[in-house]
Amino acid sequence: MPIVECTGRAGYDDRSPVMRGRRRCSGHSWFRDLTAGSLWLVLVAVTALWLSNAAITDLTGSLGSALTSIACLSGLLASALLLAQVFMMARVPIVEQSWGQDRLAMAHRLIGISSFTLMMVHIVLVTLGYAATGPLGLWGTIVDLVVNYPGILLAVAGTIALLMVVATSARWARRKLKYESWHLLHLYAYVGVGLALPHQLWTGNDFLASRVATVFWWSLYAVCAGPVIVWRIVVPLVRSLRAGVRVVDVRPEGPGAVSVTVSGPGIAALPVQPGQFFQWRFLTRRGWSRANPFSLSAAPDGRSLRFTAAIVGEGTARLTHLRPGTRVLIEGPYGRMHPGVRTQRKVLLMGSGIGIAPMLSLLQGLEQQPGDVMVVHRVRSDAEAALGAETAEVARRAGADYLRVAGRRIDGRASWLPQPAAHLTDVQALLHLCPDVAEREVYLCGAPAWMQAVHRAARAAGVPPDRVHDEQFGY
Which InterPro entries does this one have (predicted)? Predict the structure, then answer.
């Protein structure tokens, strides 16, 4: 396994109050438990309100009334879960920090599948229920619902929008879409929810049945929709205007990568840490409508921010043509991969390809003494090691170990290793490079498949899951 190694020395105070605070960091786990428990309480409350509205009588009545009653419950539960999805998309800082990207993505996927399934059950059963109790038949009932019931036509449009979101969320679809196209289509979730839910307000008996139900649902709407307005619109706009962010430098980083540095009078006020990322929107003729996520590749210094991106498509290719002075709108900072989640003195930073960018930012920003930090840089070849020389130099000055692992991927095996290391298992190689990995905090960034392989190796090597923090360049 070809490895380039660099070691240096630096000073560090283990008694630092900042480090002691980081060791006690719990990641706001109490808030994670609170939000999960609150969702279950909401679902129980929705079911209780449904039961209080003569649900038992309807269930024991005719076939049509039973189908309609079950349709109402599935629709109400789908509405609550859709609102939970909206809340999760709001990027509320304490939610992101307490859940972390991996748990949040898993919950987002589970709730999304559940809400969509319940919504389709609602549509089918309410149509069958109305058809069973009316004289119009199935197709006549469908036309009657769409044309004559308030909000149903909007709900149909909302359902189509949500169907687009679900379809483009499939893995095979994501592989065929550019990030910009996928991100734009994913924003249709807001449109879908906004169009699909109002019919509940206008015609839903469970919404209008009592003052308690009305107050409950309006409160749920406010709690879930309010943070979207605050954290996805107001806060990013205010931060961008106050910071006055503009491009100051664009620099190629070897073949296939580019670094962009921005600055502004309000940069120092941004609550950003090394390793985090922003959504960057450059106000050029073609780029103003698209935001792209890029991690910092240098620790914030209060004067400027720098990110480094691989040139993999039209959107990232436009970065090379940015001119100094171009205005920038930012959303963020986002991500839980920062020094604040550190609980161990020793740290392992692993980056694959352009995933080394946030690792370099962390390397510059972590408090450390000689031997505390190890950087593993996975590349296809030394010639393609973007930021490799800079990372090695920063490691030398900081007293960290820098190991570059080069080579193409192993054929026919889901591994993080290059072909020359095919004789080793993933965990054997990890322990060979970092024998004390089980005692370290581990930060990862790279392609999803590579990350999964490292996660498996780290667990097998004895690293607890809550000490592995990652950011993946995928969608």
Answer: FAD-bd_FR_type, Fe3_Rdtase_TM_dom, FNR_nucleotide-bd, MRET, Riboflavin_synthase-like_b-brl
Domain boundaries, the chain: 3-23+344-472, 29-238, 244-334
Quote the distance between the C-alpha of residue 93 and its chain's center: 12
The Cα 328–Cα 447 span in angstroms is: 27
Other CB atoms closer than 10 Å to residue 67's CB: what's the count? 22
Q: Which residues on neighbouring strands pair with residue 352, listed in sequence order? A: 378
> pLDDT tens-digit profile of 225-253?
899 999 989 999 999 999 999 999 999 99
81 closest CA partner among 195, 193, 222: 193
What is the CATH number that goes with domain 29-238?
1.20.120.1770
Determine which of 1-5, 49-53, 204-208, 366-370 has the lowest per-residue pLDDT on average.
1-5
CATH topology of domain 244-334: Elongation Factor Tu (Ef-tu); domain 3 (2.40.30)
Q: Using the predicted structure, report yes or no on whether residue 8 has a pLDDT greater than 70.
A: no
Predicted confidence band of residue 198 (pLDDT cuts 50, 70, 90): confident
Q: Copy the structure tokens of residue 395.
A: 């490691």
Return the amino acid letter for 167. A
Strand 401-406 vs strand 3-7: parallel, antiparallel, or unpaired? antiparallel
Nearest CA among 436, 428, 351 for reference residue 394? 351
> What is the rounded average pLDDT of the residues 301-324?
90
405 strand-pairing partners:
3, 378
CATH number of 3-23+344-472: 3.40.50.80
Distance between CA atoms of residues 423 and 113, nearest Å: 40
Tokens 């789908």 belong to: 78
- Closest-CA residue to 353 (of 471, 442, 187, 235): 471
- What's phi and psi for 229, nearest 5 deg? -65, -40
pLDDT tens column, 84-100: 988 988 888 888 888 87
Q: Cα(18)–Cα(81) distance, rounded to whole angstroms?
A: 39
